[in-house]
Amino acid sequence: MVADSAENPCYYAVIVGSPDTTFVLPKEKVRDIFHGQQTIQSGPDARFKKERWMFTILQKDRTYTLRLNRSGATDHDIQSYLNNWKQIDDFKEENDNNYHQNEPAIFVTGYDAKNLEVSRQNNILGWEHNSKFLSEGSLVFLFNKSMLKIETAFRVKSRSNDNTALIWADEIESQKLIYKNRWNAEAIYDDLNIRLDEISKIEPFNREPFQGLLRANFPMPLNTPHNKDKYSTFRQFLIEKTKSAANYWIFIVTDRPELGVSADEIYRTRMSDKFWGLNKATPFRKFIKKGDRVLFCHGAKKFIGNATLDSDSFELDEEERAKFSHGAGFYTTEYGVRLTDIDTWQIPKEVIGLLDVLPFIKKKEQYHSYFQGGIRQISEQEYDVIVRRGEGEGSILITTSPPIQSVPEMREFDDMALPIPD
């Protein structure tokens, strides 16, 4: 992936496996690595393609290197470019808007009771005006202006393609399109019951009115580069409130054929550990907490078990890293969560057989796309539907430790092509 323009890219983004592992290479670094190196044309209709460099990205322990695909090529250390978007000028403000430690951007907005209920039922949010900071993964806390309390938190999923239908009560009553800036979103925390008098005791609303944030009809960000310090206490308050609510998650495990490691082996190793590794960039990592319930899913194929989290998400110390790595770079992780009440099902539950009863899968024909990434949050109802499906078919509790097979120390990825910068 290149950005700025194909003719004059300002950086190159190399995605390895998933967007959680993206190397952001400025064009100067690309020139440093590839200048003067031989290029090739490959693949079907090669003669019609631009010449490209072919290279391999390797991982040893926790360090990534890039190597050109030729004999005697040098290994270039690219670890410092891993998910390093802040080096790109266009992304500096955008990244400043996000929480440190990968916490999501947080917004507040005000709806009356009727419009709030419409948004709940239709999984959509809308405003007269938009915020340039709003994006997928943002959390929007809705203040119920009829009840004078923050009641619901939505997670933004994507921009809505439906910007013409009259959806909310005042649109229908006036027969006019009012809220044209629309986003698909799901209510992930409800009945928060954060009253206005409680909000008014928190900095800075002990000195200025909270409802001043709600005057303009748009989502008010609470962590822009200009106001992140002002609202830091209030943001932390909102995070703590959500932590008191139960969370339900799908942890997704996939086969790694390039390493000779199956999803089943990874899953059983971690169940034996009573531990699950998390990436530093895992969305909502800081919202994962002790007591949450989790389902384990083999890709988009089948649900294979469930468990209860026995800790908040935590950073491993050196002893824990050594223990849970099993002497193999593949299992090495910096963050994780402990597990209890582990239940591995004798008969897995096929995802395709649950499509009609899982509301989070909107486009059934594209259900695979809903299982990308390592973690997905779901509702309590969706969790219950999956657990109850096929009840009575039998399940077993993990009580023994399966053998941990050796894993190659070097993690090597498939060849990939990079276009030549002008």
Secondary structure layout:
Layout (H helix, E strand, L loop, with lengths): L1 E2 L7 E6 L1 E9 H8 L17 E9 L2 E6 L6 E3 L11 H9 L8 E6 L1 H10 L1 E4 L11 E6 L4 E11 L9 H6 L6 E9 L4 E2 H4 L20 E2 L10 H12 L4 E6 L9 H11 L1 E4 L14 E6 L3 E8 L4 E2 L2 H8 L9 E16 L24 E4 L1 H9 L6 E3 L12 E3 L3 E4 L3
Parallel strand pairs: 7-9, 14-16
Antiparallel strand pairs: 1-2, 2-3, 4-5, 4-22, 4-23, 5-6, 7-13, 8-11, 9-10, 10-11, 10-12, 14-20, 15-19, 16-17, 17-19, 18-19, 19-21
Would you kindly provide a written description of the structure presented here, covering whatever features stand out?
With 422 residues, this protein is an alpha+beta fold. The protein has three domains: 2-95 and 415-419, no CATH class; 100-243, ph1033 like domains (ph1033 like fold, Roll), CATH 3.10.590.10; 248-391, ph1033 like fold, CATH 3.10.590.10. The chain has nine helices and 23 strands. It has helices at 27-34, 89-97, 113-122, 169-174, 196-199, 232-243, 263-273, 318-325, 380-388, and strands at residues 2-3, 11-16, 18-26, 52-60, 63-68, 75-77, 106-111, 124-127, 139-144, 149-159, 181-189, 194-195, 220-221, 248-253, 275-278, 293-298, 302-309, 314-315, 335-350, 375-378, 395-397, 410-412, 416-419. The strands form four sheets. Strands 14, 15, 16, 17, 18, 19, 20 and 21 form an eight-stranded mixed β-sheet that branches. Strands 7, 8, 9, 10, 11, 12 and 13 form a seven-stranded mixed β-sheet that branches. A hairpin with a 1-residue loop joins strand 2 (11-16) and strand 3 (18-26). The chain starts with a strand and ends with a strand.
